[in-house]
Task: inverse folding
């Protein structure tokens, strides 16, 4: 179901507590961030593009790009090692895999095909369609802006690996409050301040929302992610490009993730 089967980034508001736990690596059986691995999709399961497909769970025909970018933002702003599945950054699809499980019989025996749940033994879905890279929404009926999505992931990678992204790259347990949560009544919204140096505000809903009374520590805060691009070096354009210490009401567009860093 599109409303419940695509995680919190895809609109399942009931999962906000699980998202908080994953971001801060707050699992009771993991005593430090290096005990687990964070990922969105992996070699033998759903491709993220199919999970966020506009129709028929087949990312070859269109992807809901806003929730897709939110999912990527969550991954890159979480504690602990992360794994990228090759091709996810360019919305790689395994749409040729069946949605349901099948059993095929032939002279050599029986093959159980587990559909999108486990695609490791399906040849065609595991092909990389490299020619998709560079296509965009103006190419025929394929309404996928591959180039823009690759640029977004590249920005997230560079940010996480930079000095500004260092608060995410820690290998020991962090003190309580390292992630300071901002939790509006609408559970489709979540904000968090990491190490008093990075602010992320996420709106998974279809409407613009305002986060009320967001408290920011000393120093000037600079917008580096506006929901469509991430650039920690030069900053990005937006309504609230510069913020001073104090209390702010901050608007976040529908299906967007905004990121600020403290200079």
Result:
């Amino acid at each position: 179901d599109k409303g419940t089967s695509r995680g919190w980034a895809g609109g399942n508001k009931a999962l906000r507590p699980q998202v908080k736990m994953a971001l801060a690596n707050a699992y009771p059986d993991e005593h430090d961030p290096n005990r687990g691995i964070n990922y969105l999709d992996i070699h033998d399961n759903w491709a993220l593009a199919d999970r966020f497909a506009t129709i028929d769970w087949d990312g070859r025909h269109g992807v809901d790009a806003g929730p897709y970018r939110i999912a990527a933002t969550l991954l890159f702003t979480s504690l602990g090692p992360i794994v990228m599945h090759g091709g996810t950054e360019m919305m790689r699809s395994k749409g040729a895999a069946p949605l349901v499980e099948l059993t095929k019989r032939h002279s050599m025996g029986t093959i159980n095909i587990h559909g999108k749940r486990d695609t490791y033994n399906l040849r065609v879905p595991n092909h990389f369609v490299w020619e998709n890279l560079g296509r965009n929404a103006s190419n025929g009926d394929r309404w996928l802006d591959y180039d823009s999505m690759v640029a977004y992931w590249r920005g997230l990678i560079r940010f996480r690996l930079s000095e500004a992204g260092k608060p995410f790259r820690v290998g020991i347990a962090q003190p309580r409050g390292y992630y300071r949560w901002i939790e509006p009544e609408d559970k489709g919204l979540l904000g968090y301040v990491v190490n008093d140096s990075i602010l992320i505000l996420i709106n998974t809903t279809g409407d613009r929302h305002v986060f009320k009374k967001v408290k920011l520590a000393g120093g000037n805060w600079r917008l580096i992610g506006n929901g469509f691009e991430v650039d920690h070096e030069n900053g990005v354009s937006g309504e609230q490009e510069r913020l001073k210490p104090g209390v702010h009401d901050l608007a976040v567009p529908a299906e967007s993730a905004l990121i600020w860093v403290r200079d």
Summary: The helical segments are 16-23, 48-51, 65-76, 146-161. The two ends are 42 Å apart (CA to CA). The first helix runs from residue 16 to 23. Residues 58 and 214 are 39 Å apart (CA to CA).
